[in-house]
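Reposting from the mailing list since nobody answered there.

I have sequence plus structure tokens for a pair of proteins and want to know whether others read the tokens the same way I do. The first protein:
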Amino acid sequence: MTGWSVHDIPDQSGRVAVVTGANSGLGYVTARELARKGARVVLACRSETRGAAAVRRLAAEVPGARAELRRLDLGDLASVREFAGTLPYGHVDLLVNNAGVMALPYGTTADGFETQFGVNHLGHFALTGLLLPALLAAGSGRVVNVSSPFHALANIDLDDPHALRRYHRWPAYGRSKSANLLFTHELARRLAAHGTDLVAATAHPGYTATELHTAGSRAEGRRAAEWTMRTGARLLAHSADVGAVPLLYAATAPGVRPDSFTGPAYMFRGRTPAPSWRAPWTLDDRMGERLWTASERMTGVGYDALK
């Protein structure tokens, strides 16, 4: 990985890439660099207004780019199904499950799931399952789930996945990010058993200055907390252009191992992608199976192509 940068992304001509949360930050940079290398990029965004602005910006930065907007609300399974059902491509070579929320006050999705677990994990679990036939049709495709070092804050709790007994925003975020890693672990195991070349991997950007850090405090009107988070990010975090490098490495670099976890070389900072530490519970086969079964039940999405 030494010295790897966006300039090392292989040619992506003829490939179809779906990037969730691509209207800004890490998702936008990921979509832009894939388009720069020739991929047809689908920007999957909740806000059509912001998504359309991102497509215009991308077209200006990468003349000739093949990029399109499609609405996707990961907090609404009906929207996830509509997105997957209307995607007009027989194959999807790359799915980057980047969109997410962080440290929000307690809330629920349209389907009654705790918001962080529902958006960060269950929405992407459903999307991946619904796109699985197209991903398998691509041959050597990839699924990249975006997690965080903050997964270490908490293991998943399948006895209370929606925090009905008690809710604390940061442990809830950690549980959702642990779910991302555990989902990748179980998906990689099932893909290997199926004998497919589709690779499931996870990445994280480190400490990156994006809107994610201030969303929770802004939603509650906590101006002092919002200012603190914004100032800290401005002084200490790296840019989205740097933070997206591990995601792009996991998505495109040759030889990426199934179930690998890639981040900045120094965990929170650094331009060079490197293997990242992960909590032991994210490699637990039994918990991976339990999470998978629970996720299928909650979303109603089965991975029939792997059965």
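The second protein, same order (residues first, tokens after):
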Amino acid sequence: MGPHPAVAAIRLAVRRALHDVLTAHRTQPAQSPSPAPLVLVACSGGADSMALASALAFEAPRLGVRAGGVTVDHGLQDGSAERAQDVAARLSSLGLAPVESVAVRVARTAAGPEADAREARYAALDEVAERHGAAAVLLGHTRDDQAETVLLGLARGSGTRSLSGMAAVSGARGRYLRPFLSVDRQSTRKACMVQSLPVWDDPHNADPAYTRSRVRHEALPTLEKALGKGVVEALARTAQLSRDDADALDAWAAEAERSVRTDEPGERARVTLDTVGLYALPPAVRRRVLRRAAIEAGAPAGSLFARHIEEMDRLLTAWRGQRALNLPGRVEAERQGGRLVIRHGSPR
């Protein structure tokens, strides 16, 4: 008799991810001796990441992959340090090694607590992965998480890239893998239950003070009540379609940018673009070129919103002698005759 369907689903998803890791490992220059690749699982103790850890512990030795784990203590709740140590002990009991519990300090910025915690968490995961030479870090985001991300992107009105949700592969050198983007949250919880894996439900996930929590417990259920079942699957499918479109447009924009750049090679924190060439581009491509230019000049990508790009675009499409435009990160954009100059700081 085979495993429960939920257990089979999570193991299959992880097996596919590990096959990709092995394929990439085998294409690297030969080492002497060549160690098996190490894959870490990032685990909070919740059902999604505990299911992921259990599947990794089962599949890794069968494929000749070393498997370890890491849990991050954000220090945002009472007892978080003890809970992190408990999660680390659970990972070790599954047979994972090495296992680390890492405490981080979450900075308070204008980006908000969710973004601040995420920034600290990924910095910690990067450090652990680098120190151990890990080939990949597995993250437990599910299809439900993807649907929530798409809905949040839709509410922000940030365009196709925002609607593309989370990538299955991301980070430096494709470090982060999300095997569960095609697995629903109910399956991960069921897999933990049938395997008698203890899970911890983060109270932040049910706190209406957090935007994602409101989307999860209020917005999506309301949509499913009004539109019927299948909203989560449709939103996740939208993410993949949008990602394909966004990738194609980004490639087009990269090529178009080379044709309209007029700045001297080697200039730093300054990008100069030909306004005539820019104006001739399709709007979707032109806005991507403008965004790329602003980021190259020093604007933080996370603070550069659709309204900033629209204001830059008006320097081309609705030019009436406007003054220089201030962008995040002390970057400004100014039209100078037939050129659009995006630079860091003011020359005045």
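Reply #1 (J.P.):
I read it the same way you do. The longest strand covers residues 66-73.
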